[in-house]
Amino acid sequence: MVRTPFTDKNGIKRGAWSEGEDNKLRAFVERFGHPNWRQLPKYAGLMRCGKSCRLRWMNHLRPGLKKGNYSHEEEQLIIKLHNELGNRWSAIAAKLPGRSDNNVKNHWHAHLKKRLRLTNTYSSTSEQFTHESSQFDSQSCEHDEDGYNLSNMINGMDWIEENNNHIKTMEQLSSINTVEQSLPSNSQTETFDFNFWSEPLFDDFWTQSFFLQ
DNA sequence: AAGCTAATCAACCGCCTGACG
DNA sequence: ACGTCAGGCGGTTGATTAGCT
């Protein structure tokens, strides 16, 4: 699920990162930090652009990154924050320890957005859902930019998740009339010498000594 | 088994912002 | 005040995998 590696006309490598490249970047950043991403690949012995190195570090290599499935709580928090902040993925990711902005954004587009759409479709077919699934007063509860009731969204998502096996398609969902009866009634840096990097001797001496270790 | 389509997510691109000279 | 540069952000692309016919 990654782009095929290739080298562009400037000799910059692009596409998927190899394990060796990851190791070089990780080792270098852990040792020297990253005060200058543009210069970093040169000193780290990587044929990558600085942006690519930064992205790789931020989204895959930095310590504490959480991989794998999102918890229910995380998903609810994303929905809530997206409602409050819009597409400010970095701000949303900042509230989710261990998740990168890219990761959150992908999860939103691949999972949550669709589920919310599904929920709203269902919501519009069931007046009862709108009434009973919300434990909040309609005047005071939160709404998204399109006017959707946020609490209903989350409750609806809960329900869809619980009943996922029974709902296969949007068509099926919108044709269900008896579903509402089954709805729950109470649903709810390290320090670094910056001048060091501009020191010409750094070029050969440090990169060599680093990789000779 | 083969072909097709949808889903997933890593990586890229272009733009914006702030720092600095 | 202006230009340049680097970092960061959000949108988009594309390769791979999974599932369906």
Automatic annotation (TrEMBL):
Q: Which GO terms describe its biological process?
A: green leaf volatile biosynthetic process
Q: Which residue range or ranges hold the HTH myb-type domain?
A: 9-61, 62-116
What are its GO cellular component terms? nucleus
One Pfam family per UniProt: Myb_DNA-binding
Q: Where does the protein principally reside?
A: nucleus
GO MF terms here are: transcription cis-regulatory region binding
Enumerate the spans annotated as Myb-like domain: 9-61, 62-112
Q: What does the UniProt entry say about where the protein is found?
A: Nucleus
> Could you confirm whether the keyword Transmembrane appears in this record?
no
Q: Which UniProt keywords apply?
A: DNA-binding, Nucleus, Repeat
| Keyword Repeat (UniProt) | yes
Q: Which SUPFAM superfamilies match?
A: Homeodomain-like
PANTHER family cross-referenced by the UniProt entry: MYB FAMILY TRANSCRIPTION FACTOR, MYB-RELATED PROTEIN MYB4-LIKE
Q: What is the protein's name according to its record?
A: Uncharacterized protein
Per the UniProt record, the source organism is Solanum verrucosum
Give the taxonomic lineage as stored in the record: Eukaryota, Viridiplantae, Streptophyta, Embryophyta, Tracheophyta
